[in-house]
Amino acid sequence: MTAQWLRCPATDADGLRCVRVVAHQGKHEWQQCDWTDPQGYPCFLPPGHPGAHELAWFARPTTPGATQTVRHQGQEDTATAEAAEDTHEFAFHHWFPISQTYVPRSRARGARLLALLKAEALAGELVVVYEYRPEENAPSSSD
Ligand SMILES: [Zn+2]
Ligand SMILES: [Zn+2]
Predict the structure, then answer these.
(1) What does the pLDDT look like over 61-114, one tens digit per residue?
(2) Same domain for 102 and 128?
């Protein structure tokens, strides 16, 4: 009975707790404040945060042509799959990818890393740059 309530222990860089069950498949889902703006865009800060609510960057209208860089850590296929999910979501907010580059993890941290090279060589970072094009709408999905 209680096992289903065990939460994934992961926290993200901003200290948000993952709200999914322990040992879940796929992406972590970070806990957020339950406030939404009048258009229904959610606040991306943790629950009970001090100060004003803030919309996620992709939910905030900005200057046409503005760009935003999003990084996905991990192996190339995992990072690419994550980016594809984001791309789908962001397109509804008129943000479209203009470049996507996979950068293998740097070896600059020293020779000690050589021992770990086999594992390290698998990890890297996918860097996706999105551009805000308010005139353009998300392609309608047909699957
Ligand atoms: Zn998780
Ligand atoms: Zn909030």
Answers:
(1) 889 999 999 999 888 999 999 999 999 989 988 999 999 999 887 654 555 555
(2) yes
The answer to whether residues 82 and 47 belong to one domain is no
* pTM tops 0.85: no
Q: State the residue range of the domain holding 70.
A: 62-143
Nearest ligand by distance to the CA of 10: 1
Centroid of ligand 1 to alpha carbon of 32 (angstroms): 14
Buried b (16+ CB within 10 A) or exposed e, 24-61: eeeeeebbbbeeeeeeebebbbbeeeeeeeebebbbee
The tens digit of pLDDT for each residue in 30-56 reads: 888 888 888 787 888 878 888 999 888
Which bound ligand lies closest to the C-alpha atom of 54? Answer: 2
Ligand closest in space to the Cα of 11: 1
